[in-house]
Amino acid sequence: MVSLTFFGGVNEIGGNKILLKDRKTKIWLDFGMSFSTSAEFYSDFLGPKKCNGIGDYIELGLVPDIRGLYREDYLKKMGRGKEEREFDGILLSHAHLDHNGHLDLVRPDIPLYCSQGSKCIMEMVDATSGGEFLREKVSFCFVPKKRGEGLKRLDSREPEGIVERVVKVVEKPFKVGDLEVTPMPVDHSLPGAMAFAIETSEGTVVYSGDFRFHGLNEKKTREFVEKSAEFEPAAFICEGTRIDSNKTETERDVYNTVTKFCKDCEALIIANYPLRDTDRMTTFLNAAKDHDRRLVVNLKQAFLLDAFEKAGQEAPKLEDVSVYIPRKSWGLVTEDVHPDLVHGDYETWECGFIDSDNSITCEELRKNQSEYLWHCDFFELKELIDVKPMKASKYVWSVTEPFDVVMELDEQIVMNWLAHFNITEITRSHVSGHANGQDLKETIDAIRPKKLFAVHTEHPEMFENVEVVEKGKECEVG
Ligand SMILES: [Zn+2]
Ligand SMILES: [Zn+2]
Questions:
Q1: The Metallo-beta-lactamase domain covers which part of the protein (predicted)?
Q2: Domain that holds residue 375
Q3: In CATH, what number is assigned to the domain containing residue 308?
Q4: Which of 40, 143, 158, 224 has CB atoms 3.0–4.6 Å from 184's, for a disulfide?
Q5: What pLDDT score was predicted for residue 144?
């Protein structure tokens, strides 16, 4: 029997964790974090206790209690004995947290199949935010001291303290156990998004990941639909985030709004758009160029662009943007001191960008406001004090509208900052990363699966002829 078990993404947006079993082969489709379940128990400063390994996650139903899946150091800490690896691979659709957020709990010897774009993004998060997507930092392990008697904690700066995840970048069809898998790139609000066609013993299972048609890469999604239909799939696991929406704005509309808004501005243009959405960055880069402005990105974005360039991925070129270097710690970057002293204020990964020709500080931005379009997200609002935007400055809101109380409070904080600097010209322009109801319907009609499973949606009932899915309950494919 070929089966699918949905451990996340059921009646919720994201948190996809789908187990596919065929004969001896067992694979996961994504291993994401459920934002809704997580928000029931946790908030910014309230999270799982690391010393409980995966215990807290299991207790609260954030991840399933399954043998042979989780990392050894965490299991050992919980008093669970050694477990054999039970799974052949994880197919990662893309590197949004609701799809990869719990990978750091998974044993690193289960191969992760993903796109080059997803790999670059995870490298960025690991390097810049202490993530463990691709490199597990071994915990709870003591080793003999190098000098003297006794033990010390194993440190992730030592080679034995790191276990590299087995990562396979896939572009062409590949095999996992008994299964032939075809990766199919799709358009989404994150570079490197893919769908998969998995040829099982009872027909092909197509998994959409997250997709849309209204971004800069519509063609990719069209090709995915065409190719999926050729498989005459037994099952289609389709995302349905916006099944209840028929909004039709496109990324092109965002560009039109932004470039119009930037016209005749004598001061700074400030924009908040998703950090890793390089298509949105392209939109802002083009709008900036239209008005002879330089797009200014932050250090994490610079890291990502650099990684993309080195990996030959499509994205704005680092040389085409300026990189904003915030004053950190002692604030030496704007003082006349030796570069080595300046580096002391920054993480190692940041230092390379500080000395590059296209780096700028608050002083340059403050002096020549009409020459720049500056990315400033929620956490960068504090930079406004150093940058001192003039009254005639404008602000573009290019992120999703608030949909919960926390986001509403954050939005008020942004408004307070803008009001403090007398910035009154504000516009909103954003499009979602997900196909609307009509597009979803047309996609399903074109693919014509024998069985349809709706995930990543709060409204599975709005799909026609859809299988009823229960979290954790095995469903037959054939
Ligand atoms: Zn998602
Ligand atoms: Zn996504």
A1: 14-258
A2: 251-428
A3: 3.40.50.10710
A4: 224
A5: 94
